[in-house]
């Protein structure tokens, strides 16, 4: 017995020694997976550069708009035009990448972003300010093409990890502006810095492996890029209206919710831009801190969203209603306050609520859709957001021109209607659909 006990204790001691070694090996393996490969570093640079350029230049762009008397209606119209160009530009660049290769599309996007910055650097009138919108909005869609590069080079089971690195890179790019701001003091310096970053991205494109050239699809030889763009945009917009009227009720509820949230955001954003400029007298440093704060709050919302959403399980009704009402209340407080501390407090709540409700919607979509059509539904929701980006800013600018407080009234009304819709229709259509999806999965298993 004594010998057996001794042997058992020795065995237990050996197991205790093995565990730290196993844990250490797991940590090393995790760190190796986290470290990007060379081509991943290139794609990360292509992701960070345009985001960083935007956050460096945007504060000075706001000052330039004020100098050129570009008011709420002007800003709203400019944002709508940018969104409309993006609606056509994204499939255009995608088609070009299929026909002429990923490298060509990425290089074109980097040069387009650089050209927009150069035009902004020398813009001395509203004409040049409008002209600066075109190259970037139409041709700079490198984040989308970067995802296509990942699909070309990474096995399906490993794509989620690489795409996660791109998401972190995009978040870091959004934080570059405040970091660089102490070294950038003028509009011209900001434009030059942003231009150089995009030219670095242009050079980095040629470091991608040749396999990332993109392979022509079966229809590539049958359609020109322009034909592909036309049919892609037409089919995407058509799917939104088809889903709005012919899809199952649960999908229609989600569609109207996402479209309404996007409309509320874009209508209010036009007003917010004016408030920051005229009421709080934001300077470039203030805009940099503002963007950094927004990025930080959204990142926190993503860290918290998983645990919060899991608490409500399949019935997200109360969570979504609370978030939508919080958005409406936060927008109202933001429009009313004259105190920076209250402004940032309201912004923190609205950004957190927006991040959580967006994640909740995405999780719900995966529950009400089968694996065969979840991508299609996600794509339709994305198109509906782009349509809201085309319509909403112009409506916001027109409302502000009619009366400065009218955008707030409309936005609060929109959020109130959305909350009422979710409260009554989520339990009626969406929750039962998640139950049915769960039953279908159990039957398959």
Automatic annotation (TrEMBL):
Pfam families: MFS_1. Keywords: Membrane, Transmembrane, Transmembrane helix. It is a multi-pass membrane protein. One of its GO terms (molecular function) is transmembrane transporter activity. The keyword Transmembrane applies. PANTHER family: SOLUTE CARRIER FAMILY 22 MEMBER 18. This is Major facilitator superfamily (MFS) profile domain-containing protein.
């Amino acid at each position: 017995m004594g010998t057996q006990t001794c042997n058992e204790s020795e065995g237990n001691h050996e197991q205790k020694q093995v565990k730290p070694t196993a844990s250490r090996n797991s940590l090393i393996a995790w760190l190796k997976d986290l470290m990007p490969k060379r081509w991943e570093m290139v794609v990360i640079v292509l992701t960070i550069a345009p985001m960083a350029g935007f956050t460096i230049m945007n504060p000075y762009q706001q000052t330039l708009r004020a100098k050129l008397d570009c008011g709420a209606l002007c800003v709203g119209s400019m944002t709508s035009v940018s969104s409309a160009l993006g609606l056509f530009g994204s499939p255009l660049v995608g088609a070009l990448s299929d026909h002429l290769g990923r490298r060509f599309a990425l290089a074109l996007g980097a040069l387009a972003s650089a050209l927009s910055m150069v035009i902004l650097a020398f813009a001395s009138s509203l004409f040049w300010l409008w002209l600066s919108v075109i190259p970037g909005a139409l041709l700079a869609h490198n984040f989308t093409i970067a995802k296509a590069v990942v699909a070309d080079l990474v096995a399906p089971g490993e794509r989620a990890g690489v795409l996660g690195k791109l998401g972190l890179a995009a978040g870091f790019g959004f934080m570059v502006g405040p970091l660089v701001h102490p070294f950038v003091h003028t509009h011209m310096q900001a434009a030059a810095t942003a231009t150089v970053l995009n030219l670095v991205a242009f050079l980095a494109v040629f470091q991608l492996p040749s396999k990332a050239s993109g392979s022509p699809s079966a229809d590539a030889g049958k359609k020109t890029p322009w034909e592909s763009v036309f049919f892609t945009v037409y089919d995407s917009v058509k799917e939104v209206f088809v889903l709005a009227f012919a899809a199952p009720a649960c999908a229609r509820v989600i569609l109207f919710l996402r479209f309404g949230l996007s409309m509320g955001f874009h209508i209010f954003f036009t007003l917010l831009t004016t408030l920051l400029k005229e009421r709080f007298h934001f300077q470039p440093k203030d805009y940099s801190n503002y963007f950094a704060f927004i990025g930080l709050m959204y990142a926190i919302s993503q860290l918290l969203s998983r645990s919060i959403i899991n608490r409500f399980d399949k019935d997200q009704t109360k969570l979504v209603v609370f978030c939508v009402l919080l958005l409406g209340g936060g927008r109202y407080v933001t429009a009313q306050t004259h105190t920076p501390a209250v402004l940032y407090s309201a912004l923190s709540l609205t950004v957190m609520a927006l991040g959580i409700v967006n994640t909740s919607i995405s999780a719900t979509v995966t529950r009400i859709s089968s694996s065969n059509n979840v991508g299609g539904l996600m794509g339709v929701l994305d198109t509906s957001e782009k349509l809201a980006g085309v319509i909403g800013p112009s409506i916001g600018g027109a409302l502000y021109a009619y009366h400065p407080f009218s955008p707030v009234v409309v936005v609060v009304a929109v959020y109130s209607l959305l909350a009422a819709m979710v409260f009554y229709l989520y339990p009626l259509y969406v929750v039962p659909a998640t139950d049915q999806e769960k039953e279908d999965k159990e039957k398959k298993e």
